[in-house]
Design a protein that fits this description.
484 residues; alpha+beta; v583 fold; Enterococcus faecalis V583 fold; 3 domains; 5-stranded mixed β-sheet; 17 helices; 18 strands
Length: 484
């Protein structure tokens, strides 16, 4: 019977999983639809069992949904209700953390100096020169290799930093208060473009600019903020999504909005007129100035969603140039990390893929809050830069919706009929679907000091999420199935 049916009707096939079978169908004149499917839990039966238990974990039969779902609802409520406000400038990091001593903070999960990528090592060396702890790069490197300088992570201090993410005691910080939940987050300040510390440059020009930020930019912004009740960063981010930013790799609209807000405040301040002019010129000439503010805003949002028992929501994604790591709301301060992927995108003239460093920086905190890759549909201009299409951008945002708990009604995406940006990355959905979170990113040269050489897309490694899922299963005492 089967041969006659095939002979009398056109061959039409739905192929699941491996796409190698589709070629023979097409060559036989048939039509084929490829369904992108993979076994749950990457084909690992124990992981698949743990996932099934965590998805159906009905700890309290009198309440709707599983206890994880209820915890995630709390996490998402804290994300969507957050109100990050730029309230002050700390003129020096040591004013915020008096016990900081001779410690440098860096992006990503813990990494020893010897194991750091080139840009981060170069930035560490530059920080010692800036602080005056070393007179030459060679002396600085010897001190770092000898363990004479403390090394810690920005996230462990409630802070974030782009690329190498170095924060040293003398650096000024943005101070952002979450008005809804009361927590505070910090970030260093944008150095602008060109040769900058965050990409590992550490020459005299770099140190001079850092000193100008400390002595001119920071005091001027502090004087401006003293005139009011702070600047609503989330409001700027939401408006920027309507103006073509995804507020991670593209911040042109957000920077202009911030410039408008700070200009009014500066006009009312007692800031030094010369420093005021320099500050306005610096911000106006740096379309990525708002990146650090978007990061610290996202940090203030996501820290409020951290520490919710049994929640499977990702509250941080961070990269140190060697590994990518995540933190999960219900799993404390533990990092789940795996080797970083290489960003894929467009390179500036003269550079190629082999010049690139692995993914780097704390800026993926933006994706956890619903910006960046989650909101890529909002930024067609960025899509052209990273070598894609508007259709692909929309597809990325839809994929992020598939692995998140909800949409944020306060963050509208015009290209998706003004649907809210996806928020609350759920480790269960990542492992179940096989969809890894999309991150928009700048591409750093692997050698210290060369700088940014392109921009593109990268995905967080699946191993981060499988490790976290296993840890959550253990924390909730999910038992392995009995042998048959």
């Amino acid at each position: 019977m089967t041969p006659s049916l095939l002979a009398d009707a056109p061959l039409s096939v739905i192929n699941i999983g491996v796409d190698a079978f589709t070629r023979s169908v097409r060559e036989a004149g048939g039509s084929v639809v490829q369904l992108d499917w993979r076994p749950v839990g990457d084909g690992d039966p124990q992981l698949a069992w743990a996932l099934a238990q965590l998805v159906g974990d009905a700890h309290d039969s009198t309440a709707p949904g599983s206890r994880i779902d209820r915890a995630n609802a709390i996490a998402v409520d804290r994300i969507t209700s957050a109100q990050p406000m730029l309230v002050d400038i700390a003129l020096h990091a040591r004013d915020v953390w008096p016990d900081m001593g001779r410690t440098l903070l860096h992006a990503g999960a813990p990494v020893a100096f010897d194991a750091m990528c080139g840009p981060m090592q170069g930035a560490m060396i530059g920080a010692l020169l800036y602080e005056g702890w070393a007179a030459t790069p060679g002396e600085a490197e010897r001190m770092l290799r000898a363990g004479d300088i403390g090394i810690a992570q920005c996230h462990d201090f409630g802070a974030v930093g782009p690329m190498a993410g170095i924060i040293s005691p003398s650096m000024p910080l943005f101070v952002v208060k979450n008005a809804t939940h009361g927590n505070t987050a910090y970030s260093n300040m944008s150095e602008g473009i060109g040769r900058v510390l965050r990409f590992g440059a550490n020459g005299p020009d770099v140190i001079e600019r850092l000193r100008w930020i400390e002595t001119a930019l920071a005091p001027t912004l502090k004087a401006a903020l003293a005139t009011g009740d702070g600047i609503d960063l989330k409001g700027i981010q939401a408006q920027a999504l309507l103006m073509g930013d995804e507020v991670h790799s593209r911040n042109a609209a957000a920077t202009l909005q911030f410039l408008a807000a700070i200009s009014v405040a500066l006009a009312d301040s007692d800031a030094d007129p010369q420093k005021l002019r320099e500050t306005l010129r610096f911000i106006a000439g740096n379309s990525q100035f708002f990146l650090n503010l978007s990061m610290v805003s996202s940090k203030a949002i996501m820290d409020a969603a951290h520490g919710i028992e049994t929640s499977s929501v990702v509250t941080a994604i961070a990269r140190n140039g060697v590994t990518t790591a995540i933190r999960v709301s219900g799993l404390g301060r533990q990092w789940f990390e795996a080797p970083s992927d290489m960003p894929i995108g467009l390179f500036f003239p003269g550079f190629r893929q082999e010049d690139a460093n692995a993914d780097l920086g704390d800026s993926a905190i933006c994706e956890t809050a619903g910006f960046g890759g989650a909101s890529l549909a909002a930024s067609p201009a960025l899509v052209q830069l990273v070598g894609g299409s508007v259709g692909e951008a929309i597809a990325y945002s839809r994929q992020m919706h598939d692995i998140t708990v909800a949409r944020n009604p306060g963050l509208s995406l015009p290209a998706l009929d003004f649907a809210g940006a996806p928020c609350g990355i759920d480790i269960r959905k990542v492992v179940d679907s096989g969809i890894r979170p999309v991150i928009t990113t700048g591409i750093a040269h692997r050698q210290a000091g060369v700088g940014q050489i392109g921009a593109g897309i990268v995905r967080a490694p699946m191993a981060c999420f499988t490790q976290a899922l296993t840890a959550l299963a253990a924390a909730l005492d999910v038992r392995e199935p009995a042998p048959c």
